[in-house]
Amino acid sequence: MAFEGLAERLQATLKKLRGKGKVTEADVKEAMREVRLALLEADVNFKVVKDFVNRVKERAVDQEVMKSLTPGQQVIKVVNDELTQLMGGSQSKLAQSHRPPTVVMMVGLQGAGKTTTTAKLARYLQKQNHHPMLVACDVYRPAAIKQLQVLGEQLNVPVFAKGENDRPVSIAQEAVTKAKEEHCDYVLIDTAGRLHVDEELMSELADMREAVSPDEILLVVDAMTGQDAVNVAERFHRELELSGVVLTKLDGDTRGGAALSVKAVTGCPIKFVGMGEKVDALEPFHPDRMAGRILG
Ligand code: GDP
């Protein structure tokens, strides 16, 4: 399960505080030393860890907390609040344009789960009575076009695709026009991915952004890759101004580093998480629920 090691360590540390009738500054410091190590071990960005621990300490070593009837529980509440804030505070919802269709560009590196996530998002929208259209712009990988077509058929969602020789930017433009004609209210564009972030990829994505003025640019990253995922997010955000992140493979045994660092490092909220390979395995991300799950 995701975050298992982190959850176990944090829960064990905070358990020591829970029942205490009196909590001293030294108790808080000791607990925060352990919290710091647990977060670092979960591959959370070191600067994020430092700021987090300082904020918790500052709020916890407060007279009102210390002198309350349940000081241990108050400290735990501070940790819970700060963890929630770290992951974005409240839920960050998918945009919905007042003038449909809402255009969503899905970007990311190969293997992150971009194509699968694009189909999952279509499924998610379909369940909310929307009419999405999938657009195959990953023309450098014919298998990706086929993959999207198969998924679209499975979901009964239209897939806009062209030959491998068409330019992704014009495919995207044509797709938006077609979506208007067919009364689709969401256009989900599966863009090309590469093995590494490179100039060519970025300039193609920037051209597409210019051409279709998306309401959302969602970066799909693999949670299993920890700080690498955060670095990828930083790069993409610098070049494209992302509106959000989708963290995939949270059903695996990821340590938690990406989920806990990406918002703090890039400023981009996590909007969805992938919880499996099936098309139904996509969930909106709730920072408070995730914090609750980690702290038990
Ligand atoms: P792309 O190259 O980024 O388009 O990646 P794909 O969509 O082809 O996905 C790569 C692999 O990751 C596939 O085997 C997917 O089934 C798998 N995958 C995607 N999302 C998830 C997820 O949330 N959990 C798990 N376990 N596997 C996933």
Automatic annotation (TrEMBL):
Subunit structure as annotated in this protein's UniProt entry: Part of the signal recognition particle protein translocation system, which is composed of SRP and FtsY.
Entry note about domains: Composed of three domains: the N-terminal N domain, which is responsible for interactions with the ribosome, the central G domain, which binds GTP, and the C-terminal M domain, which binds the RNA and the signal sequence of the RNC.
Keyword Ribonucleoprotein listed: yes
UniProt keyword annotation of Nucleus present: no
Molecular functions (GO terms): 7S RNA binding; GTP binding; GTPase activity
Similarity comment: family membership: Belongs to the GTP-binding SRP family. SRP54 subfamily.
GO annotations of cellular component type: signal recognition particle
Residues that coordinate or bind GTP: 108-115, 190-194, 248-251
GO BP annotations, alphabetical order: SRP-dependent cotranslational protein targeting to membrane
The organism's taxonomic lineage, starting at the top: Bacteria, Bacillati, Bacillota, Bacilli, Bacillales
UniProt organism field: Novibacillus thermophilus
Catalyzed reactions per annotation: GTP + H2O = GDP + phosphate + H(+)
EC number: 3.6.5.4
Keywords from the named record: Cytoplasm, GTP-binding, Hydrolase, Nucleotide-binding, Ribonucleoprotein, RNA-binding, Signal recognition particle
Enzyme class per UniProt: hydrolase
Compartmental location: Cytoplasm
Free-text function comment from the UniProt entry: Involved in targeting and insertion of nascent membrane proteins into the cytoplasmic membrane. Binds to the hydrophobic signal sequence of the ribosome-nascent chain (RNC) as it emerges from the ribosomes. The SRP-RNC complex is then targeted to the cytoplasmic membrane where it interacts with the SRP receptor FtsY.
SRP54-type proteins GTP-binding domain boundaries: 269-282
Main location: cytoplasm
Source taxon at top rank: Bacteria
Underlying gene: ffh
Protein name, UniProt field: Signal recognition particle protein
